[in-house]
Design goal:
The complex is a heterotrimer of chains A (308), B (273) and C (352). Chain A folds into two domains: 42 residues, no CATH class; 241 residues, MetI-like fold (Orthogonal Bundle), CATH 1.10.3720.10. Chain A is built from twelve helices and two strands. In chain A, helix 3 runs antiparallel to helix 9. The radius of gyration of chain A is 26 Å and the shape is flat. Chain A is mainly α and 308 residues long. The longest helix of chain A is centred in the first third of the chain and has 33 residues. Chain B has 273 residues and is mostly helical. In chain B, 77% of the residues lie in helices and 0% in strands. Chain B contains 14 helices and no strands. Chain C is of the alpha+beta class and 352 residues long. In chain C, strands 6-7-8-3-9-10 form a six-stranded mixed β-sheet, with helices on both faces. Chain C has a five-stranded antiparallel β-sheet with strand order 13-12-11-14-20. Chain C has a five-stranded antiparallel β-sheet with strand order 15-19-16-17-18, with no helix packed on it. Classes of the chains: A mainly alpha (308), B mainly alpha (273), C alpha+beta (352). Chains A and B meet through helix 1, helix 3, helix 4, helix 5 and helix 7 of A and helix 1, helix 4, helix 6, helix 11 and helix 13 of B.
């Protein structure tokens, strides 16, 4: 069969010069910003990561090579940073997801005062991390903090939340979970609302109780959304930085023990002025994020294919 | 009866959770009004003895919070204004106008969205320094004049508008510019409101970038100014809490009014970003 | 304004949507572009408006070649199937929009808008938004918006398909009335043959991109150019009796039933034909040439609809009820002169 690929007929439009460049004029302001502050940096950082002994002041470098990556990947401090970051991710994501599933499900029931509950659960999302971080710091105070006071009622001794290396991890994690909960709940709530209520009705008619419905119907139907939310939160938790600042006065933990990847990049840049190394570390960070983003894309397209 | 109990349990747990979520705010506001003695007491005092704006006055005297506030507002208005403008134009171009490579360029932009700012900051920092804009308010505005994310959202809305409206306007002799501002933009009011709100929040709460590029007091924005204040007022938590309240209160008020828009915006964009 | 289409063609990839279409539409006429789904009528309309470029042929508005002209320069008004009203503007705002674009001063805008609104009977709705209007009202506003700039051609794309049956009857009369008041040349696209028959000055019938017949409505009904035209127009559909011709008589499909008809004189023997007869063209006649049997009878008030069979083929006929037919009756029918046609079964061309 002869495939006759015909060029589509020319649209009847104004062919004047101004009309032809019109789309580009609309895009110009947008692309100016993107070009200078997104495109150029991407290229620049990638290139920089391959410039050995890159000097920020003179913009000179000794040669192209993998020395920066070598430094990063063999640096025990980087390993520690990755370890800490992973610890954070592996604690915050599951805990916040678990709590959010329950809360989202509760919020999805037609209860009264839903506006009030929503406000309460969603507020941390819109407030400055720095400001609430300082409030938490006050609450975490070993001697005068309200948290230790409440715990004393349960017979628990004063915990050195922010002063002790071991306890600094739960302090950060609790704060992190609290911060990420609103976002997670919103996404799960929206996922819940996409579940056809007919499933619930059918289950009730079969005589299932609320808990059973929750475990056997809601959670499985919600599973793809839960998975996606975990991915998105993982990506966001990899970049943990601003949460540490107010709690520990700008330091990554009481004894630099909560050194994270973003802190590594910052120190490489600002303290050591080793931009090449910072760039390499940033690329490694992006590598992690990229992997998870791809997983997310695959799952999302699988999900929408399933819907048909 | 069983239903009653389960309902009660639900309310109980939700309320308990809500209290935990709101508690840090309660503590922040209550501490903002306490005196130095009250705040250092143990067992801690739940509520301040009396309400006075003393701490606020002192905090504002110790650090230029009024300036910080003004800076935050200024930067927010400028960057949100500029971003909204570029977003409207770009979303329209990608949605309605024809040019070669339209689809390809847009997908490339979408993939750029996953690049973390923490990576771009390395170059953006030196770009700002090279342009001589270090420690200026411009440095806080300039990198944030366009957003792929918001353009993606607005384009989504523009795509949903029926072709026939466009052709109707064209046949009447309307130009693209006129059609965009007289028809598309008014119709897009809900989406635009969401975008503007999310953008405003992000700008107001922005911490990392100001921390990198601003060093002098007169150019600090609220979150960064607040953090710096801890070095001076570290032993006076009541002042810190007063300052924190100033940072947080406008946002809370905004949230009370615009909760629906914000929540909807997060829900829609959450899985993409 | 006179519209001339000269061998207009539209191709999409390897599909030809409109093929060598030629027609002349006179000034002030209400013309319907009629045909089944996919026949190319909307495509043709879009080419007339300029939204779709032509692949071949030319279009003239009053001797001016507009084939390459963009839509905004053609001076047309277009009403979309979904009306395309701007949801955030009031009725007044919607109607004024074309005038605003033309920079007509405000006072004149409002006056012209009000005038047109009075004509289409939406003048009391000027402050409402489209979402507050009913389907029929929305359509009137859409028409008003198209007419307010005094276009030289008004195009309507399936204007009545989104309305319920009763509203459809009312609105088609309205379209007719408005068109006659303004005198603007109007072309409207429809798939409903009854609609086209009732209000058009002229019908252009299309099938698969090809013009079938361009004529007065009654002529399409009484003198169809081919089988398709005869089938398409008329309710109930025309009765097609397949058979052959033998010595001036029609022989039915079963090979046995015969019916001598004077109109068959001169038709060659053995030709495969359809004898197409309108339901109202049968007459009960005890001396008639057709011997049929009644299979069903429906009483419908003033007339009877009988289902009969001739030579193995079923057909419907309107029969005068005084006779009181019953199932199983054997009757003889003769055919009127009007409403009886002979078509070639293979090509659909009209023989008689």
């Amino acid at each position: 069969m002869k495939k006759n690929k015909q060029k589509p007929d020319r649209e009847l439009v104004d062919r004047s010069f101004l009309a032809r460049i019109e789309p580009y004029l609309y895009l110009l302001p947008f692309f100016l910003g993107i070009a200078v502050f997104t495109l150029y940096p991407v290229v620049n950082v990638v290139l920089m990561s391959f410039k050995e002994d890159y000097s920020y002041l003179t913009r000179e470098f000794s040669q192209w090579g993998l020395a920066n990556y070598d430094k990063v990947l063999s640096d025990p401090k980087f390993a520690q940073a990755v370890g800490n970051t992973l610890k954070y991710v592996l604690l915050v994501v599951p805990i916040s997801t678990l709590i959010s599933v329950i809360v989202a499900n509760l919020l999805n029931q037609k209860l009264r005062f839903s506006a009030l509950f929503q406000t309460a659960y969603f507020l941390p999302m819109v407030t400055s991390v720095t400001a609430v971080g300082l409030a938490w710091k006050l609450m975490y105070n070993k001697n005068f903090g309200i948290i230790n006071y409440i715990l004393s009622f349960f017979g628990i001794d004063k915990i050195p939340w922010l002063e002790n290396a071991a306890w600094s991890i739960p302090s950060l994690v609790i704060f992190g979970v609290w911060n990420i909960l609103p976002f997670t709940i919103i996404l799960l709530l929206s996922g819940l609302q996409n579940i056809d209520p007919q499933y619930y009705t059918a289950a009730r008619v079969d005589g299932s109780g609320s808990l059973r419905i929750f475990l056997r119907i809601t959670v499985p139907l919600l599973a793809p959304t839960i998975f996606l939310v975990c991915i998105v939160n993982t990506i966001s938790c990899f970049k943990v930085f601003s949460e540490l600042y107010p709690l520990f006065n700008g330091k990554p933990g009481p004894f630099y023990n909560l050194y994270t990847v973003v802190y590594y990049i910052r120190y490489a840049m600002m303290e050591n002025r080793k931009y090449g190394v910072a760039a390499a570390a940033a690329i490694v960070l992006f590598g992690f994020i990229f992997v998870f983003t791809m997983i997310q894309r695959v799952v999302q397209s699988w999900m929408s294919a399933r819907k048909r | 009866m069983k239903r009653r109990i389960s309902r009660f349990c639900m309310y109980f747990f939700l309320t308990l959770g809500a209290v935990i979520m709101l508690f840090p705010f309660f503590w922040m506001f209550s501490s903002a009004f306490k005196t130095t003695q009250e705040i250092n007491k143990f067992p801690p005092q739940w509520l301040p003895g009396h309400l006075s704006l003393d701490n606020f006055r002192r905090a504002f005297a110790m650090a230029p919070f009024a300036k910080y506030f003004f800076n935050s507002v200024f930067v927010m208005v400028c960057s949100v204004g500029l971003t909204t403008f570029t977003t409207i134009l770009a979303a329209f171009a990608f949605s309605r106008l024809r040019f070669p490579g339209r689809k390809l360029i847009f997908s490339l932009l979408l993939s750029l969205m996953m690049i973390p700012f923490e990576m771009l900051i390395i170059t953006n920092y030196s770009t700002i320094v090279d342009l001589g804009l270090w420690d200026t308010l411009t440095a806080l505005i300039l990198p944030f004049t366009s957003s792929i994310f918001y353009t993606y959202i607005l384009k989504g809305f523009f795509d949903s508008v029926s072709d026939s409206l466009y052709w109707s306007a064209r046949i009447d002799g309307s130009s693209n510019w006129r059609y965009l501002w007289k028809v598309m933009v008014p119709m897009a009011r809900p989406s635009l409101t969401t975008i503007i709100l999310l953008n405003a929040l992000a700008s107001w709460n922005s911490f990392m970038w100001p921390m990198y590029v601003i060093s002098s007091d007169k150019n600090r924005t609220l979150p960064w100014g607040l953090q710096v204040f801890t070095t001076e007022a570290g032993s006076y938590p009541e002042l810190l809490m007063a300052a924190s309240t100033v940072v947080v209160l406008p946002v809370i008020i905004l949230f009370l009014f615009a909760r629906k828009y914000i929540v909807r915006g997060v829900a829609r964009g959450g899985l993409k970003g | 304004m006179r519209v001339v289409l000269d061998h207009v063609t539209k191709r999409f990839a390897d599909v030809t949507a409109v093929s060598e279409f030629s027609a002349t539409l006179e000034d002030g006429e209400l013309v319907s572009l009629l045909g089944p789904s996919g026949c190319g009528k909307s495509t043709l309309l879009n080419m007339l408006s300029g939204i779709l470029p032509v692949s071949g042929g030319r279009i003239y508005f009053d001797d001016q070649d507009v084939t390459g002209m963009p839509p905004e320069k053609r001076g047309i008004g277009l009403v979309f199937q979904n009306y395309a009203l701007y949801p955030h503007m009031t009725v007044m705002g919607n109607i004024c929009f074309p005038l605003e674009t033309q920079r007509v001063p405000k006072a004149e805008r409002i006056e012209r808008a009000n005038e047109i609104a009075r004509l289409v009977h939406v003048d009391m709705l000027m402050n409402r938004k489209p979402s507050e209007l009913s389907g029929g009202q929305q359509q009137r506003v859409a028409i008003a918006r198209a007419l307010v700039k005094n276009p030289r051609l008004l195009l309507l794309d399936e204007p009545l398909s989104n309305l319920d049956a009763r509203l459809r009857l009312e609105m088609r009369e309205e379209i007719r009335r408005i068109q006659q008041r303004t005198g603007v040349t109007t072309i409207f696209v429809t798939h409903d043959q009854e609609e086209a028959l009732s209000i058009s000055d002229r019908i252009v019938l299309m099938k698969a991109g090809v013009l079938q017949q361009n004529d007065l409505p009654q002529s399409l009904y009484n003198e169809p150019a081919n089988q398709f035209v005869a089938d398409f127009l008329g309710n109930p559909p025309i009765n097609n009796l397949p058979g052959t011709v033998e010595d001036g008589a029609f022989v039915a499909a079963d090979g046995k039933a015969r019916c001598a008809l004077p109109m068959l004189a001169g038709v060659e023997n053995g030709r495969n034909v359809n004898l197409s007869v309108r339901s109202e063209s049968f007459v009960l006649d005890e001396n008639g040439p057709m011997a049929c049997e009644v299979t069903r009878v429906y009483q419908m008030g003033k007339e009877e609809m009988a289902y009969l069979t001739f030579g193995g083929t079923d057909f419907r006929a309107y029969i005068d009820s005084e006779e009181g037919l019953r199932k199983g009756d054997a009757v003889r029918l003769s055919l009127k002169r009007r409403g009886v046609f002979l078509f070639d079964r293979e090509t659909g061309e009209r023989i008689r």
